[in-house]
Amino acid sequence: MDLENLITKHLTRYFDPNKKIPEETFELLLRYLRTSPTTINIQPIHFFVLETQAGKDKLADALVGRFEDNQEKVRNASHAIVFTTRKTIPGEHLEEIFAKERADGRFADPETQSGWEAGAAGFVKIQSENYGGDVLHWLEKNTYLVVGATMMAAASLGVDATPFEGFDRAAIDEAFGLTDTDFTTTLLMALGYPDETRVSRQPVSRFEAEKIFTRM
Fold first, then answer.
1. What is the model's pTM?
2. What is the side-by-side strand order in the sheet with 45-50?
3. Helix (H, G, I), strand (E, B) or coil at 63
4. Most exposed of 12, 90, 185, 202 (fewest Cβ within 10 Å)?
């Protein structure tokens, strides 16, 4: 990954519709998505992976009204991902996580595993209390953590990844059958390669280091 290039690079707003991410490269990125870290391994995310034009059009068609400007981004991207997040953490979800951890041998012995499970369940309770019973706020923090890491993982593969919040949540939820389920749309991401004729050549604009860093 060329970090110096990332420091001066704008997010890609216009993708080249003729350039596709190689299948092997994209599968590697999906492997990373599956293993990306979340707090206490809570894994609250479901990814809608849009790799066909029909899939991308389904998303683009749901970007209506003031969000229509994002349609081109999605249609021209090589791939797109809809990041959705659990709105609650029912006991069944925790039990499913614990069962998978046991099956995968995540912990060396049953006593350690049992202690972890008790602590994880307690932490979910703490987060629920912190947000007045609404854990979606906490769970979406985990989704954003995964989104940021995905951008860096994509960059390491030479792929541009552009997340965006310009959408109507209810419209996307309806398009992907999430209405009245335990999941809701959190963020969208377009992936691919930039249209070089429309890349911004202007400098990025950020506060000076002295304003944002307190070094001690």
1. 0.94
2. 45-50, 79-86, 183-192, 160-164
3. coil
4. 202
